[in-house]
Design brief:
Distance between the termini: 79 Å
Main location: secreted
CATH class of the largest domain: Mainly Beta
Order of helices and strands: EEEEEEEEEEEEEE
Helix content: under 10%
Strand content: over 45%
GO cellular component, one term: extracellular region
Structural class: mainly beta
CATH superfamily of the largest domain: Immunoglobulins
Organism: Climacteris rufus (rufous treecreeper)
Pfam families: fn3 (PF00041)
Shape: rod-shaped
Subcellular location: Secreted, Extracellular space
Number of helices: 0
Number of strands: 14
Number of domains: 2
CATH architecture of the largest domain: Sandwich
Length: 184
């Protein structure tokens, strides 16, 4: 069982390591730096009673070299090292645009399109009101057509980006359908 990371986000991760020391027998020195930038190394001392630690305040989409050095007054333990890459920054949709609006449909598009998004959920419903419908769109698309709407109505449209990490970010816009053709 070796030093490894879990719960990795764009700005933090949790390190876990085997219990080599105890409170009485020493402490750990933890060193970490972005790969290729040893000058930006940070050092932390951790009590021998611990076997995990969260490192936070990290740069997104960066590989860190981590070394755990057991400082024991009883035995020699070799340092354990690992490399951990933080996730890309999760950016919410920054723009939601409504276009080509007709009596029964409109087009919704959004930006930016990000690799870290698995899918988008488009929720829409008339205002006022609480009937909401959902469209699922694959993460590589950035627009969809919303149909079967009532003419001359205002809709609230929310685009939610669902990230690989499970996080979600949303942005809303209002859309109005055109008046329908009146029967003569």
């Amino acid at each position: 069982h070796r030093l490894h990371a879990t719960d990795i986000t764009s700005s933090s991760f949790r390190l876990l390591w085997p219990q080599l020391l105890s409170q009485e027998t020493g402490y750990y020195t933890l060193e970490y730096a972005p790969a290729g930038h040893p000058a930006r190394k940070r050092t932390q001392q951790v009590s021998g009673a611990h076997s995990s630690l969260v490192l936070s305040d990290l740069a997104p989409e960066t590989t860190y070299e981590v070394a755990l050095i057991p400082e024991s007054n009883m035995h020699y333990f070799p340092p354990q090292t690992t490399r951990v890459s933080t996730l890309p920054e999760e950016i919410s949709p920054v723009q939601v645009l409504i276009s080509e609006s007709g009596p029964h449909s409109f087009h919704v598009s959004w930006a930016p399109v990000l690799d870290s998004v698995v899918s988008y959920q488009i929720l829409y419903g008339p205002l006022p009101g609480n009937s909401v419908k959902v469209l699922e769109v694959e993460g590589r698309h950035n627009s969809t057509l919303v149909e079967h709407l009532a003419p001359n109505s205002t809709y609230l449209v929310t685009v939610t980006a669902i990230y690989r990490s499970g996080k979600e970010r949303s942005l809303s816009a209002k859309a109005c359908t055109q008046e329908g053709e009146r029967a003569a």
